[in-house]
Amino acid sequence: MVFDYWPHSLIALLEIVLILAVIPWILMTKKDATAAVAWCLVVILVPFVGVLLFWVFGYTFVYRPLNRRRRHRRLFRTIHPPQTREAAHGAGRESKPDSAWNDLGQMALKVNAFPISDGNAVTLYHDTQQTFDGLLEAIRTARHHVHLEFFIVHADDTGKQLLDLLAQKAREGVEVRLLVDAVGSLHLKRRALRPLKAAGGKVCAFLPLNPIQSRIRINLRNHRKIIVVDGRVGFTGGMNIGDEYLGKNAWFGYWRDSFLRLEGPAVAGLQRIFAEDWDFTCREPLNSKAYFPELPSAGEAVVQVVESGPDQQINTIREIYFAAILSARERLWIASPYFVPDNGLLDALRLARYRGVDVRLLTIHRPDHYVSFYASRYYLTDMLAVGVKVYQYKKGMMHSKLMMVDGQWAMVGSANLDNRSLRLNFEAGCILHTPELVAELEAAYRRDLEESILLDAKTFAKRSFAARLVENACRLLSPAL
Questions:
Q1: Strands (E) located in 94-194
Q2: Given this model, what pLDDT does residue 9 score?
Q3: What does R_g of the chain's alpha carbons equal in angstroms?
């Protein structure tokens, strides 16, 4: 009879061992107390399922590869120190933003942003078809290399157009490197890449889902969008590659996104981010001067390249957003399809309103990710309560990631105002310290508001109990959104 109970005893013993092994693991890796308590309870109550969930969703560190990536970053920044126009001319000092109002650039330096760089030419894109056409035109001019890094590349008509052009350039002898995220581009099949590879192009997937190497990581995704041509022309922003991003998907309709084209010394920052990611993923160092040419002045724009990711001790873009919100004195205008901020950012936004700042948030009307959408609606309640003007874009899909402060400072990039972008994903973007460029962004933002619905706080508060219940349930997943 005793032997009838041994399977249950063995299971109970395994549960105890798992709990004792995983709880310290959680406590050592989760800095947020609420998240730590939540994961500990899950593991204690359902040990086997809880451990699996934590391994896939909760564990946001990959020590060996990320430590290697930190070494690569130090190496690249030693070999290729940040370049400014004054440094290129032998003055040996960093350039300063045009506005004495703004010390944000110097603060950004302390949280791992690239140095402020003047002498740049910036073209802002507010339409995705124009963005895509600009990308293709720049790639056609390539003579030495084309580097591309995207979260999503689809093998549809739009993706095929890009891949065919890349294959053509590779046949012409141009070095082509394409880095895609293993999860975001999961449906990009090998057959779609065969012509590019056959022509000599190189393709790598960032952090592939490899259970043998303990890399089933739904988190830690590369959400960056970077293109660099011959080390002299760079692009970054929020748009991926696919038909829907050009407004060809009937469900989403018109796709509103923000992108920019960059020439001048700041391009080296985008190139360094790509080179570090490529070396980390493909183990091919890009040290040649051909990838980092001397970059003379190309314009008058003051630009600062930024990156962030879970390999950083400090969440760079999150800290910059936080500081920008606190710095606002007159107006703070934000565009983000997903709005799932942490408590610190929520408090900063409230404080901005208490100080009389004109805070506006432009977000989506029709969801593409329902959990994020309903979690966002939970947080919109707090924003409306303090007088933040919340707009929902009704013309189509609003995918821009923008922050503009007082007409003096703006940031364009890949990072949404949510925990996933600010804590879990690898992101990149550009800070613009030039008021003329900020004015252009603000003008486009005003046009977007004309295509949007202004939420009424009283009407929003009357939504059904079922809707509010769904929102509360979804916001429980906020740390992973």
A1: 117-125, 145-150, 175-181
A2: 64
A3: 23
The CATH number that applies at residue 368 is: 3.30.870.10
- Say yes or no: 160 and 134 in one domain: yes
Question: pLDDT tens, 121-139?
Answer: 999 999 999 999 999 999 9
357: containing domain: 316-480
Closest CA to 31 of 371, 428, 419: 419
Do 25 and 165 lie in a common domain?
no
Query: Quick one: 200 and 280 in the same domain?
Result: yes
- DSSP for 452-479, written as a single string: EEEPPHHHHHTS-HHHHHHHHHHHTTGG
State yes or no: pLDDT of 4 exceeds 60: no
Write the DSSP assignment of 349-391 as a string of letters: HHHHHHTT-EEEEEEESS-SSHHHHHHHHHHHHHHHHTT-EEE
DSSP state, 415? Answer: -
pLDDT tens, position by position, 32-50 = 665 666 667 666 766 666 6
Contact between 249 and 285 under an 8 Å Cβ cutoff? The reply is: no
Active site residues: 223, 225, 230, 399, 401, 406
Number of domains comprising the chain: 3
Helix spans in 237-328 (H): 267-282, 316-327
pLDDT tens for each residue of 249-259:
988 899 999 99
